[in-house]
Amino acid sequence: MKPDSTRTEELPIYESLVRERGDVVEEARVVSEETQHQVTQALNGVTPVDRGPSS
């Protein structure tokens, strides 16, 4: 399998699943970046701000 063969424009089933179920990969990336930011802040001694329930 070529490295480019997994690009989303070559995977119509992926596009279909994203339309039906949402882009789980993108959501995981966002959560990962937020978590990384929170960990960095915690390691630097910054007190987290309570943003209330996330929905």
Order of helices and strands: HH
Give the tally of β-strands: 0
Biggest sheet, in brief?
none
Beta content comes to under 5%
- Compute the average pLDDT: 81
Alpha-beta content class: mainly alpha
What's the total helix number?
2
Low-confidence stretches: none
Distance between the termini: 39 Å
**What fraction, in percent, of the residue positions are helical?**
40-55%
Query: What radius of gyration results from the CA coordinates?
Result: 17 Å
Shape: elongated
Characterization of this structure:
With 55 residues, this protein is mostly helical. It is built from 2 helices and no strands. It starts with 11 loop residues before the first helix and ends in a 12-residue tail after the last helix. 0% of the residues are buried. The model has no long low-confidence stretch (mean pLDDT 81).
Write a brief structural summary.
This protein is an all-alpha fold and 55 residues long. The chain has 2 helices and no strands. 55% of the residues lie in helices and 0% in strands.
Characteristic terms for this protein:
55 residues; mainly alpha
Secondary-structure blueprint:
Elements: H1 12-21, H2 24-43
